[in-house]
Design a protein that fits this description.
heterodimer, A: mainly beta, 5-stranded mixed sheet, 3 helices, globular, B: mainly alpha, 4-stranded antiparallel sheet, 11 helices, 4 strands, flat
Chain lengths: 162, 663
């Protein structure tokens, strides 16, 4: 399995590259007033409006720092067999991909309701890398907020289709 | 001679016998003394002549013995001869005096053989010397006999041995002989002779006085007894004549004189008795007349002087009685007039000038009365004038005294005031002196301040120049740093670009890797390429990172440098401004101080002249004070004088007021 490495604080995490649509530079976002703090803004991705969530803020209650290595990862978000959505994740220190055999992953042995997206852990070069499950990354309130207009399901569907 | 003796009172009082004894003894003493003295002198001369001959013999025999020693060749034994000679009785010293010729031929000899005194030298010149001298032990005779070398001296040819011309004095023998023993013997003889003479003289005197007593003294004493009895009034005292010598005749003559005197005395006694009776009568009359009783009468008469005296006296007494009666009447008249005048004058003497004289007449008393009356009138006028004048003088002198006392008080006050002024002037003088000193000090300080300020100013000018250079230097540094900063910025731009490219490349590689993964097995090759690209991008990123870091450091350093240079430059500029300000202020100060100096000088001069003026004032006031003091003194003097004048006026007034005058 190939993962895209990133860091939150001093810890290393990874995202399965199969969930990633594209890695984008940290471009300017349209502001999202009165929204939750961890919603960084809206991204114009080839004519499609994509919400961007600050993952670092979501995980550690600290906003991402604007660095060259801070990038926006576009992921294909699908929660419990619902419709596919494009979601931008603002993450720090994205510089490399890593290929780790599947059997190297082990369960962390810890499941928290506060952070349900934290998955298995692999040890690479004596460093622990925990896989982040992006399907569980958004809390329910945020998910409903971000993808609220199920009436416009078509639009979303259309967007997804494109 | 006798009159001389009689003049000596002690001798004159002595009895005749003692006088005779004294004269005889004196004559005897003179004769015995002169004989003794003469014989003593003669004897001593004889002794000396004898001793001289003897001593000369000794010298000759000593020479003979010496000559014998010469001839026998034992001259070196001559000290034995001397020792023996010295042991002879009476010899004090024996020695040979060696002549110069002998010394030349035979050497100098013993120490005692050298000539030592004038006697020796005289002998060596050929003179035989004989001298007597007085020593502590008595008289001493010294004989020095010279000996000449001849062909035949006492049958000896001296010239055989001595290499000298004939007649040369080769030496002398000197002998000193003591005359003490001989002298003492002579003196003893003289003493014995004199003693015998004195004893004989005493015996002669005793015998002579006894004889004289029997012949002269006793008869004279008896005659003296008789005369003194007669002198005391014993008319029967007569001398009993025992001899017919001078004293006997003297006694007889006295007896005749006594008989004559007795007869004369009886005659004179009778005449004196008669005269005394007449004189008694005269005395009686005269003493009565002396007591005022002119009634006495002379009862005797006679042709002798006493009788004439009695008659004359009777006439004189009668006329005297008549004239006395006339005089008594005139005197009583005169006394009355004089009493009247006296009354007036004595009243006037007591001060009462009001009396009047009632005496008339052309005699002396009358004229005296008129003159006294005129005098009294004049005195009245004079005294009343004097009284008035005395009162005026007294009041005037009292006024003058008061005025002068006031003046004195005023002058004393003035003197005190002047003294105060003197003190004040002295203080002013001292203060001015101090001020002058202070001004001198201030002037010096201001001069030194001016010079210090000038020094400071030049130092500040130098500093300003340095500061300016520093400003320039810092400006150029800042410019260079600016250039550096610009270049760093350029580099930074390039690096940023490179960094962006690297980032893009990384992003590209990431997306490529993702796509390759998605492509599965088909994307394997592409995945390798993506990995390589990413590594390249990573290296580039690292390199650019390093460069960026360096540039940033450099930039921050440059920025810091620029800032500090700016700050420094600013500070320097500030300092330059400050320095300029300080310099300006210093200029100001210097100008003010320079202005001050002449003012100080003028102040100083003013002070000096003020000090001199104060001094002069002081001196003037001191002089004034002295003159005031003098005035006070003179006022005091005049006060005293006025006091005296006042007293005198009072005295005058008192004196005059005793007089009463006709008003």
């Amino acid at each position: 399995m190939m993962i895209l490495l990133f860091s939150v604080g001093n810890d290393n995490y990874g995202i399965n590259v199969r969930d990633i649509t594209e890695v984008l530079p940290s471009v300017a976002l349209k502001n999202f007033p009165n929204g939750p703090e961890y919603v960084a803004g809206l991204l114009n991705y080839r004519g499609q409006v994509v919400p961007v969530v600050d993952l670092t803020l979501l995980m550690t209650a600290q906003a991402s720092r604007n660095r060259i290595s801070s990038r926006i990862v576009l992921v294909d978000y699908q929660h419990e067999n619902e419709a596919h959505h494009l979601l931008g994740l603002l993450i720090e220190k994205i510089t490399e991909t890593l290929k780790i055999p599947d059997h190297d992953f082990t369960s962390s042995g810890v499941v928290t309701h506060e952070a349900p997206f934290l998955g298995d852990i692999a040890i690479h070069n004596e460093a622990m890398i925990q896989v982040v499950d992006i399907r569980r990354v958004l809390p329910e309130s945020v998910k409903s907020l971000l993808f609220y207009d199920s009436r416009d399901k078509n639009i979303v569907d259309n967007g997804t289709a494109q | 001679m006798l009159s001389l003796i009689n003049r000596i009172p002690v001798l004159n009082r002595l009895p005749v016998l003692a006088k005779v004894n004294l004269i005889v003894a004196l004559v005897f003493i003179v004769v015995v003394g002169s004989v003794t003295f003469y014989s003593g002198v003669r004897e001593k001369e004889n002794v000396l002549a004898l001793a001289t001959n003897q001593t000369k013999d000794v010298t000759r025999s000593y020479f003979d013995a010496l000559n014998t020693l010469m001839l026998t060749g034992t001259m070196n034994q001559r000290e034995i001869l001397r020792t023996k000679a010295l042991k002879r009785h009476g010899i004090l010293d024996v020695r040979v005096v060696r002549g110069e010729a002998v010394n030349k031929q035979f050497g100098p000899g013993f120490a005692h053989e050298k000539p030592v005194d004038e006697l020796d030298f005289r002998a060596l010149r050929g003179e035989e010397v004989v001298q007597v001298e007085r020593r502590s032990t008595g008289r001493a005779l010294t004989v020095v006999t010279p000996f000449r070398a001849t062909a035949n001296t006492a049958d000896v040819n001296c010239l055989a041995c001595h290499n000298v011309p004939s007649g040369t004095v080769n030496g002398a023998v000197r002998v000193s002989y003591s005359l003490a023993e001989l002298d003492s013997r002579v003196e003893e003889d003289i003493l014995i002779g004199a003693s015998a003479n004195v004893v004989l003289m005493a015996l002669g005197l005793i015998v002579a006085s006894m004889v004289l007593r029997g012949w002269i003294t006793r008869p004279l004493e008896r005659l003296m007894d008789v005369i003194s009895k007669r002198g005391k009034g014993d008319p029967g005292a007569r001398y009993y004549v025992t001899s017919s010598d001078e004293i006997g005749r003297l006694g007889k003559a006295f007896n005749d004189m006594a008989d004559m005197a007795d007869a004369n005395e009886a005659r004179e006694h009778a005449a004196a008795q008669e005269l005394r009776n007449k004189v008694n009568v005269l005395l009686d009359v005269v003493s009565k007349a002396a007591k005022g009783d002119l009634t006495g009468k002379i009862t005797f008469s006679g042709d002798d002087s006493v009788g004439e005296l009695g008659a004359g006296l009777q006439v004189m007494i009668d006329s005297l009685r008549l004239s006395i009666d006339e005089k008594r009447i005139a005197m009583e008249d005169l006394r009355e007039k004089v009493d009247s005048i006296l009354d007036v004058v004595s009243k006037a003497a007591e001060g009462d000038l009001t009396g009047k004289i009632n005496v008339v007449g052309n005699d002396a008393i009358g004229q005296l009365a008129i003159a006294v009356e005129r005098m009294m009138d004049n005195l009245n006028v004079l005294v009343s004038q004097v009284q008035r004048s005395g009162i005026q003088v007294t009041s005037s002198s009292t006024e003058i005294a008061a005025t002068s006392r006031q003046q004195e008080a005023t002058m004393t006050e003035q003197a005190v005031t002047v003294n105060e002024v003197v003190a004040t002037a002295t203080e002013i003088h001292a203060t001015t002196r101090e001020l002058v000193n202070t001004m001198d000090a201030v002037s010096r300080v201001s001069e030194s301040t001016a010079s210090s300020a000038a020094d400071g100013q030049s130092a500040l000018e130098k500093m300003e120049g340095t500061m300016r250079q520093m400003v320039d230097a810092s400006a150029s540094i800042a410019e260079k740093l600016e250039v550096l900063s610009e270049k760093a910025n350029n580099i930074n731009t390039v690096v940023t670009t490179i960094s962006k490219v690297a980032d893009q490349t990384n992003l590209l590689s990431l997306n490529a890797a993702i796509e390759a993964e998605k492509a599965g097995e088909y994307g394997l090759g592409f995945s390798v390429v993506a990995t390589e690209i990413r590594r390249l991008a990573d290296q580039t990123a690292v390199a650019t990172w390093d460069i960026e870091q360096m540039i940033k450091e450099m930039q921050s350093a440059v920025t810091a440098g620029v800032m500090s240079v700016d700050k420094f430059s600013e500070e320097v500029r500030h300092s330059v401004n400050d320095v300029r300000q300080v310099s300006l202020q210093l200029n100001h100060i210097i100008a003010q101080v320079r202005e001050l100096t002449p003012r100080f000088e003028s102040v100083n001069e003013g002070m000096h002249s003020q000090a001199q003026g104060a001094d002069q004032i002081k001196q003037a006031i001191v002089q004034l004070s002295e003159s005031a003091q003098q005035t006070v003194d003179s006022l005091r003097q005049s006060n005293i004088v006025i006091e005296r004048l006042n007293e005198a006026a009072h005295g005058l007034q008192n004196g005059v007021s005793r007089f009463k005058v006709l008003s």
